[in-house]
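Ops channel
N.P.: pipeline sanity check, posting one input/output pair.
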């Protein structure tokens, strides 16, 4: 994945100079639902800040393997549940199809993890209401990459 492909907004993945704000191993995260190329920029930012990408899952195993190869130490897992059940994972980054982002975020927060999604974070007002309720109930963050 090119990190400078500005002509293709979907696949543009900015990368910068690493500026860690945490020590190695202090912030463990996972990536799933790799449907949009912005997931690379999202994970670049998290790793440049010192985060460690532990797991990758996508329904398309080949896509997950290609993605994991870009991040040293990332392991492809067989299903989303492996990510959700891992107590070490603090945050899940996802770039699902827009209409699926809210449901993914709610599952993530219901498992005690913060959620970081690509824009647009939801597609209906009903999803917005459900996301607000999940944030209130879980105390977890629903964050959007712009």
């Amino acid at each position: 994945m090119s990190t400078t492909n500005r002509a293709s907004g979907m696949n543009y993945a900015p990368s910068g100079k690493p500026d860690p704000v945490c020590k190695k191993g202090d912030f463990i995260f996972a990536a799933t639902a790799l449907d949009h190329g912005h997931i690379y920029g999202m994970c670049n930012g998290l790793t440049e800040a010192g985060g460690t990408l532990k797991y990758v899952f996508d329904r398309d195993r080949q896509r997950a393997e290609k993605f994991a190869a870009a991040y040293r130490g990332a392991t492809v897992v067989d299903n989303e549940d492996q990510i959700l059940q891992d107590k070490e994972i603090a945050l899940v980054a996802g770039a699902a199809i827009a209409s699926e982002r809210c449901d993914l975020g709610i599952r993530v927060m219901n498992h005690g993890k913060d959620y970081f999604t690509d824009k647009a974070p939801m597609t209906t007002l009903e999803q917005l209401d459900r996301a607000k309720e999940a944030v209130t109930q879980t105390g977890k963050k629903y964050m959007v990459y712009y």
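N.P.: looks fine end to end. The longest helix spans residues 125-138.
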